[in-house]
Design a protein that fits this description.
Largest interface: A-B, 80 and 80 residues
CATH class of the largest domain in chain A: Mainly Alpha
Radius of gyration of chain A: 22 Å
CATH superfamily of the largest domain in chain A: Tetracycline Repressor, domain 2
Strand content of chain A: under 5%
Organism (chains A, B): Kineococcus mangrovi
CATH topology of the largest domain in chain A: Tetracycline Repressor, domain 2
Oligomer: homodimer
Keywords (chains A, B): DNA-binding, Repressor, Transcription, Transcription regulation
Shape of chain A: flat
Protein name (chains A, B): TetR/AcrR family transcriptional regulator
Helix content of chain A: 55-70%
InterPro entries (chains A, B): Homeodomain-like_sf (IPR009057), HTH-type_TetR-like_transc_reg (IPR050109), HTH_TetR (IPR001647), Repressor_TetR_C (IPR004111), Tet_transcr_reg_TetR (IPR003012), Tet_transcr_reg_TetR-rel_C_sf (IPR036271)
Number of domains of chain A: 2
Chain lengths: ~220, ~220
Amino acid sequence: MGPVPAAASPAPRRGRGRPSSPVLTTDGITAAAVALLEERGQDGLTMAALARRLGVAPSALYNHVATKQDVLRAVQDAVNRGIDCSGFGRLPWEEALAAWARSYRDAYERHPALVPVMAVTPVRSAPHTVAMYERVSSGLLSAGWPAHLVTNVVVAVESFALGSALDTQAPADIFDPGDLAPSAPGFTTANAARPAGDTARAAFELGLAALLAGLRDLLRSPS
Amino acid sequence: MGPVPAAASPAPRRGRGRPSSPVLTTDGITAAAVALLEERGQDGLTMAALARRLGVAPSALYNHVATKQDVLRAVQDAVNRGIDCSGFGRLPWEEALAAWARSYRDAYERHPALVPVMAVTPVRSAPHTVAMYERVSSGLLSAGWPAHLVTNVVVAVESFALGSALDTQAPADIFDPGDLAPSAPGFTTANAARPAGDTARAAFELGLAALLAGLRDLLRSPS
DNA sequence: ACCTGAACACCGTTCAAGT
DNA sequence: ACCTGAACACCGTTCAAGT
């Protein structure tokens, strides 16, 4: 699968039957879906909207993908392609893992609708996703992590990154208890003391630092 | 809000106009929605199915809730009510936090459809959710955590628990690279070495141990 | 093989009409 | 105030008909 070309917006076809050369490709559909998701958010990605952007009838899409879920899987692989794994083999594993986690969270912050898809979609037939896991896994193995722990480390960091990506979608007042404040003094105190700014990022960085420190300990003193 | 009563399945009403006493209550709708979600999964919760279970026309629901999102919010508060916060004030904070995280993950493992809802829904008018955060926040404050860090600690643990809850929904073969195995030797090695059994739980426990160890360090040596 | 256009079974939600 | 039943604007998906 080559680089995903930018989606054009061709004029609607007027002919009735089979076109002389195919109008749609899987890569084109994927690119249009990514663009739609980025421009219009998760509810903006409908098969009808996708077809319109591609200048085609909705039913035409089903000559190239079996279901909408197929489209989401392809989009997810395109998103994973953009995640930075370049630190592995070049930097100490803690730094490579931290950079991967940050990039992972940022990618899914832009595509929160894909978080449940990512958690559940098999990697086979998702080449960029497999390539990502290969870099991470072999990086951890080379750094001295025992093979039987590597996937659990990857999944733990991934779960944290995906949960943190969802957290970026929270409204600023998510923890405002409203009328219930009098019944929650400790909660209210803690919220008032939380520094303003990018709170989601602050929570992510705190958790990431703790997680990495704990993993470092674990690797040093195996149980 | 009292305990949510088990949802009965009343015979459909036959009369045409306003009933002599209301047939629906918000609590009843919530309980039926929880049951539906548990029995039929996330796609099983439709306004039509909810109405049928309550012996009512779909449009009748809109006298009690404004949108389906309202129903999900109420369900989420009911789910949060079942999360165990009992350790705070009784056990060392690390143990209380660990028990909370485990219970949190388990609750959302049963309701993965609510994970994106939980990450984004304001707590006001969700009394059990506020009560949960109050126990956790005041527990951490009493244990000596600086107020400005408490909410970030809570959010970090929560993000990890929610991400891990999603991970429980992954199929067993999610990491099977299929045809792509030759291009991913390290990934394949790591997967082969991963112990069989409840792999999602193993990853969660590894990450939780690391996260808590890191938080312990952080509390001891503040930056 | 790969498109169009009509059709299907759903979805959440609105609203007039009934009591 | 709180229900019914009809209706609306959508949704993903199927399929015969065209070239």
